[in-house]
Specification:
Number of helices: 11
Radius of gyration: 20 Å
Strand order of the largest sheet: 10-9-8-13-11-12
Order of helices and strands: HEHEEEHEHEHEHHEHEEHEHEHE
Oligomer: single chain
Structural class: alpha/beta
Helix content: 25-40%
Number of strands: 13
């Protein structure tokens, strides 16, 4: 399926390219471009940002992604630092012990100090919902140790819903906005972003203590296929469906209705999977037909720190809106 980049991504790449060019004199009557980006953005690997996107914007320090640890048995793996996908898949399939943890405050402190050394004036640090992880608390501890001002943002969400907020923050920062504006722009986008997902089994969510209100589904877990959502930072049940085929079809209907309710031309979609890429690609292709005015959904494997709780066979769809230029 051909990829269509959202307009804001194209704008951001062009903007960063201009900022990286040597400064040239401009007439006094003209307003010069923001030659220095004042605000750096830090996040964690639960944001599920595309690897090529991260590579494009971490080279000069404007973005940093702190890896979240995943423990398989007695071994600890860092998202993005280790090739954990196959190891985690085998562990989930066999029922082996899989756990996750928050990054250490020291990791965030290093990220903030690195931004300060590069000349940034402030940091906006955007993290996985505090209802699902203590990551934001670790970031707050680190922020108290450094002299550079750090704005800690609890995304109240996860996956590319969080990631879209991070991308929006980078857009605002690339336009020379200060920390308050960068934070506000990211929060606005994340408030308008929804996460819907289907899991073949609630077992991993139950083991990790992440199902919250979805616990009411456990009594019939063998008879139903749940459709879940992230609401108020928590995982909540949306519907109980009697078969996997019907659950995925219903997921598509929910997503299509959400997309239709948003401003035309502004909708964005992302599809996450783990252990079922072909199924995710088929879902994305159907959504592409159902939502022709929306750019082709971005397809990516769920980060290990999230897959450890969702389990094999998860299908998640994130519905958001474009990160548009500001100022």
């Amino acid at each position: 399926m051909p990829e269509r980049e959202p307009p804001a991504w194209i704008w951001l790449k062009e903007r960063v390219a201009r900022l990286r060019q040597p400064a040239t004199p401009v007439p006094a009557a003209e307003e010069p471009l923001a030659a220095v980006v004042r605000t750096a953005v830090v996040t964690d690997s639960a944001a599920a940002l595309p690897a090529d996107w991260v590579s494009a914007f971490t080279a000069d320090g404007r973005l940093a992604v702190v890896p979240m640890p995943v423990m398989v048995g007695n071994e600890i793996y860092g998202e993005g630092e280790d090739d954990i996908t196959q190891t985690l898949s085998l562990a989930l399939a066999s029922g082996a012990s899989v756990r996750t943890s928050r990054p250490s405050p020291g990791q965030f402190e290093q990220a903030y100090l690195a931004a300060q050394r590069r000349g940034f004036e402030a940091v906006v640090s955007i993290h996985i919902s505090s209802e699902l992880s203590g990551t934001a608390d670790a970031a707050r501890l680190a922020a108290a140790r450094v002299s550079i001002p750090v704005e800690i943002v609890d995304s109240r969400t996860v996956g590319m819903a969080q990631g879209m907020g991070v991308q929006s923050a980078v857009v605002a920062a690339a336009d020379g906005q200060g920390a308050a504006e960068v934070r506000g722009f990211a929060e606005q986008r994340m408030e308008r972003t929804k996460v819907y997902f289907y899991v073949p089994s609630l077992e991993q969510l139950r083991r990790g203590g992440r199902i919250g209100a979805a616990a009411s589904l456990l009594g019939t877990v063998l008879a139903i296929k749940p459709i879940l959502a992230v609401d108020g930072g928590k995982i909540v049940p949306l519907e109980k469906v009697r078969s996997a085929v019907r659950a995925i079809a219903r997921l598509e209907e929910i997503v299509a209705a959400d997309v239709a309710s948003r401003p035309a031309g502004q909708q964005r979609l992302a599809v996450h999977h783990f252990g079922n890429q072909i199924e995710a690609e088929a879902l994305a292709a159907r959504l592409n037909e159902t939502c022709p005015d929306c750019p082709a959904p971005q397809i990516s494997a769920l980060p290990a720190v999230l897959a450890a709780h969702a389990g094999l066979g998860v299908l998640a769809v994130i519905v958001g809106e474009s990160s548009t230029p500001v100022g």
